[in-house]
Amino acid sequence: MSETATTRKVQRLGGSSLIITLPKQWARRLGIKVGDEIEVIESGGKLLVQPRDQRAEDRAGTVAIRYNGIARMAGVEAIVNCAFVHGYDKVEILIKGLGEADVKRLMAELNASKKVASVERGTDRLIVTLAPSLNLDAARLIKEASSSLQQLLEAAASGAEEAEIRRLEGQALELIESSLRSSSKGSDIVDPMAYGVLLALPSMVADSSVVLKGRADLLNKLKEAVGEFLGGLASASGRRLLNAAMIASELRDMALHEGGAAAVVVPLADALLSASMKLICPSILEQEAEGLAE
Description:
It comes from Acidilobus saccharovorans (strain DSM 16705 / JCM 18335 / VKM B-2471 / 345-15). It contains twelve helices and eight strands.
C-alpha cells in the first residue's frame, strides 16, 4: 500500500489527555470503526498508529448484504455495481431461507457478470470476489473517460454508426466506474454528490448522440460542456465547472429554441448545469475563507 501523509491539529480532551482525528478515508481503508481499539507506538521520535485487529483492513474490503427486499428487486448487476463502485473487494450475499433453485440461479447470474472473478458457496452465504479494476488514480480515469466521450461525440457529429457510439459509451462507463471505485478506496477525489450524474453520463450522451447524429452544432456544444465538467471534476477546478454550467445553459437554450429532435439534449444539459453549480460550492467557500483570512 502506498504511503500517504497529512497534518492534523492536536486538541485537548479533559484535563490532561491530547487527541488527534483520523482522516475518514484512512479509517475506511483500514477498517477502523467507532469503538475499535488501535495501537499507538512511540518509536524513535515518531508515533505509529495501527489497528489492533490485524484483520480489520481485510474486513473493510467486504460487504455483507441480505438477498431480499430491495437487493433482490434491484437484481444482481445492481448489487455487483454498487459494491464495485463503492470500493469493496468481496460481497457476502446471505442466502438463508432461499430455495435451492433460486440459489443456483443467483450463482449463475453472478458468474455471468464481468465484474465478478469468482463465486464460492458457504453454509448460509455466497462469497463473491470482484474482479480487479484498473490500477490508476481517479483523476486520470476521469480524464480518460472524458476522452472517450469526446471521441463519441466527434464520431456522432461525423455520422458514425450507432454500434460505434455504443462501443465508446461502454468504454467511458467502465472508466467512470473504475474512477469511482478508486475514489472510494481512499483518494476521495470525487464528490459523492457527482456519483449519480457520472454514472448516467455515458448513456445520456450516447442516447442524445444517436438522435442528433450529424448535428455538429449541438454535438460540439455538448462536447464542450462534457469536457469542462469532467475536467473540472478531475482537477477540482471551480472555474472549469462554472464554464461547464455556462456552456450547458447555452446548449439548453439552443435546444429549446429549436425544439423537435433537438429537445432530446435538454435533460442532459439540465443535469450538467445542476451538478456543476452544486460542485463549485467548495471553490466558492474556499475563496471566501481566504478573503476573510487576509
